[in-house]
């Protein structure tokens, strides 16, 4: 009987010592102490999340599993930040954020999954490796030139490609467009693209050259600039409104016609 108990306890300890914690995100993998996990490429200021199933069904004090209490991150690179998991979180999730001005290169940190209340689970600590690159954003226009009517917006379709291993929010704005300050915020998941419509309009110029800016909310170091041109053709309604702003001297018949045009424009 005593030998049977010793054998049982030895098996329990063996199962506990070799238990691997399942990582659920950003991809699925069994994690053991001492492992090194490559998480991919991110840009400066971007945040990557990792989540774990902290409720093993084996090992522990009685060989039937238990619950890890918390996961955290240690040994961060200078200027980086991390957020630990919630206590008893389901799942346990940690976040690692690169410095907003992080130079390109390879970085490491340590993730710890801890049994603080001691249920006989072995703490798991492992290394994560990330590459920081400034080349995580691509953007393109459906056409760099648009023709429209005066007083009407020109619509561009912008494809934003996020090459990072984590999702990000990008701000779309424009410059070189008088009295126009419209912004659009676009979330693009990791390793994917999204096409959005963006409009510009100028009431002052028939021809103008908007510069469309796409900037990551994580860091201004992640950005793209797209140059475009717009040709706004006069519209009949715009001409009518222009004549109503002041009398233009023409021969008698022309003056009557333009006065009538000004009256008609008030209906629009």
What does this structure look like?
- The chain has 268 residues and is mainly beta.
- The chain folds into three domains: 2-132, Immunoglobulins (Immunoglobulin-like, Sandwich); 137-233, Immunoglobulins (Immunoglobulin-like), CATH 2.60.40; 236-265, no CATH class.
- 15% of the residues lie in helices and 42% in strands.
- The chain is built from three helices and 19 strands.
- It has helices at 2-17, 236-244, 252-265; strands at 21-25, 29-31, 36-42, 47-52, 70-74, 81-83, 92-97, 105-114, 124-132, 137-141, 145-149, 154-162, 168-175, 184-188, 192-200, 207-208, 211-216, 223-227, 229-233.
- The chain has a five-stranded antiparallel beta sheet with strand order 2-1-4-7-6, with no helix packed on it. Strands 3-9-8-5 form a four-stranded mixed beta sheet, with no helix packed on it. A four-stranded antiparallel beta sheet has the order 14-13-17-18, with no helix packed on it.
- Helix 2 packs across helix 3 (252-265).
- The chain is elongated.
- It starts with a helix and ends with a helix.
């Amino acid at each position: 009987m005593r030998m049977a108990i010793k054998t049982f306890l030895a098996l329990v300890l063996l199962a506990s010592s070799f238990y691997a914690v399942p990582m659920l995100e950003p991809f699925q993998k069994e994690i053991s102490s001492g492992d090194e996990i490559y998480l991919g490429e991110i840009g400066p200021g971007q945040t990557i999340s990792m989540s774990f199933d902290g409720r093993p069904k084996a090992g522990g004090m009685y060989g039937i599993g238990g619950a890890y209490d918390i996961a955290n991150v240690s040994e961060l690179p200078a200027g980086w930040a991390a957020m630990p998991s919630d206590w008893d979180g389901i799942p346990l999730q940690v976040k690692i954020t690169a410095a907003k001005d992080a130079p390109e290169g390879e970085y490491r940190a340590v993730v710890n999954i801890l049994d603080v209340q001691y249920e006989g689970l072995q703490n798991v600590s492992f290394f994560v490796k990330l590459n920081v690159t400034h080349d995580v954003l691509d953007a393109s226009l459906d056409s760099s030139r648009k023709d429209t009517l005066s007083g009407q917006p020109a619509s561009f379709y912008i494809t934003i490609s996020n090459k990072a291993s984590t999702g990000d929010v990008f701000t779309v704005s424009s410059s070189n467009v008088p009295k126009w300050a419209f912004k659009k915020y676009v979330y693009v998941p990791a390793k994917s693209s999204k096409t959005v419509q963006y409009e510009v309009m100028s009431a002052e110029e028939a021809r103008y050259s908007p510069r469309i800016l796409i900037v990551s909310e994580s860091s201004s170091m992640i950005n793209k600039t797209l140059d475009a041109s717009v040709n706004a053709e006069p519209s009949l309604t715009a001409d009518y409104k222009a004549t109503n702003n002041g009398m233009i001297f023409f021969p008698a018949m022309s003056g009557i016609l333009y006065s009538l045009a000004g009256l008609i424009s008030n209906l629009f």
